[in-house]
Specification:
By secondary structure, the chain is mainly α. It has one domain. 78% of the residues lie in helices and 0% in strands. The chain contains 16 helices and no strands. Helix 9 crosses helix 10 and helix 13 crosses helix 16. The two termini are 50 Å apart.
């Protein structure tokens, strides 16, 4: 293959389906692919290979010794922030001793309900991934889908601005037998649906926050929420617009990047141009792919909205564990939970370290009296941060000791099934030929 920009040759393996289409066909009704169609398939495969290479590089970077040390440092910073909040609570107000916490009226049933809500959150995520996998491959793989969600969330919470999960999901699905295009399209479709659901729900929360005044006026957290929502909404709107109008999109991207280059914000114009267009192309391909099946898209969007709601039910169940059943506080706590999450989302630290804890303390402090605020913060942080780290480590260990071996046997089973089907089809074909000879 040709060299590009002095880089090493890109090895392209022609897919089996392409080989069958290019070769002469026995069935005269079927037409071979045109030269343009063959070029389009090869170009798409080149793009897929480039995306796989990028994902592999990012995964290798995350697994490097330097990155592991950096992630551990961020983890220590997170622990340090929690300790600082504890010290502040001890010096400014009373913190209930852990020995009396369980005898002070803490309702453990609501703690259990919190875990159930978390489980439903994971099930919704797995159902969405499984639907995308089945849509791309024709095979349902629910356990793989759950592990893919867990792996993605694990690397999201340990990387700045939750950007590390998608490359790991791509490589994980590729290593579990999905084709390059499917391994890329599934996480991309999952991301697009999550973004759409997030924009819809955050817009509703924004309207409720400004009309009900549940946060008690303008605060640092509310300002951070408005800024974070505006940036996310603007980015998503621009990408979706560019995806719908490709010709206009290219011109708009070019003009914008040229302007940014003039004011010295963008240095490498070509690199950034290709990077933005790749994101736009991914969005466009994803939207076009799932728009073909409207009911599937509606189902996936519904699951995404439910998953979003479940995420912010957790602060409410934690509050009920300390205060008892308080349905009158649900809307207020839900809005505050969304605001804390969005406010911390654009902070370039893993898990929104520091901002999440301080925002929770500022907004939820009014609900927790008698020294219970710190313990509510700890339980919430476990359910929104540490549990994803623990679950991810568990999945990685499971695969190392059990999962990889099980997949090897499963792969062999599929190969034998395919060989059996091929053998039966060949025998049937031979039988029909012999029968036609006898009839003549």
């Amino acid at each position: 293959m040709r060299k590009r920009d002095g880089k090493k040759n890109l090895k392209i393996k022609t897919p089996a389906i392409l080989q069958e289409q290019v070769l002469p066909l026995e069935n005269k009704d079927e037409k071979p692919l045109t030269e343009e169609e063959v070029k389009e398939i090869i170009e798409k495969q080149e793009i897929n290979q480039n995306q796989l290479d990028e994902a592999e590089q990012q995964v290798a970077k995350q697994k490097s010794k330097k990155k592991k040390i950096l992630n551990f440092v961020f983890f220590l910073i997170n622990i340090g922030v929690v300790i600082a909040i504890l010290v502040n609570q001890l010096t400014t107000q009373e913190v209930m001793p852990i020995s009396t916490l369980f005898t002070s009226g803490l309702n453990l049933w609501f703690i259990l309900l919190t875990l159930v809500v978390f489980g439903l959150y994971m099930v919704c995520g797995a159902a969405r991934i499984n639907t995308l996998v089945k849509h791309s491959t024709g095979r349902s793989r629910p356990f793989l889908s759950y592990k893919t969600v867990a792996i993605g969330r694990h690397y999201d919470v340990i990387t700045p601005m939750a950007t590390g999960g998608q490359p790991f999901q791509i490589m994980y699905l590729k290593n579990r037998g999905l084709s390059a295009s499917a391994a890329i399209s599934v996480p991309m479709g999952n991301y697009v649906l999550s973004q759409i659901a997030s924009i819809i729900m955050c817009a509703i929360v924004l309207i409720l926050a400004t009309t009900t005044n549940v946060i008690g006026g303008v605060t640092v957290v509310s300002v951070a929420f408005y800024v974070g929502f505006s940036l996310n909404f603007l980015l998503s709107f621009v990408i979706i617009f560019l995806s719908i109008s490709k010709s206009v999109g290219k011109k708009l991207v070019g003009w914008t990047l040229k302007f940014l280059r003039k004011i010295k914000i963008v240095k490498n114009y070509e690199k950034q141009y290709n990077k933005v267009l790749k994101v736009v192309s991914d969005y466009q391909a994803t939207i076009q792919n799932y728009a073909k099946s409207k009911w599937t898209f509606v189902y996936l969007l519904f699951i995404s909205l439910i998953q979003f709601i479940l995420t912010f039910i957790i602060p409410f169940t934690i509050t009920c564990a300390f205060l008892g059943w308080r349905p009158d506080l649900f809307l207020e706590i839900f809005i505050m939970g969304v605001m804390v999450d969005v406010a911390a989302s654009f902070i370039p630290l893993p898990g929104g370290t520091g901002v999440s804890e301080l925002s929770f303390t500022a907004l939820f402090g009014q609900f927790f009296k008698d020294g219970t605020l710190f313990w509510a913060l700890i339980i919430w942080r476990i359910m929104s941060y540490y549990i994803f780290m623990i679950q991810g480590v568990g999945i990685i260990m499971y695969d190392y000791f059990v999962g990889n071996k099980k997949y090897t046997w499963l792969k062999r089973k599929w190969e034998l099934e395919a060989e059996s089907i091929e053998f039966r089809e060949q025998k049937l074909k031979n039988y029909k030929k012999e029968r036609n000879k006898l009839l003549k």
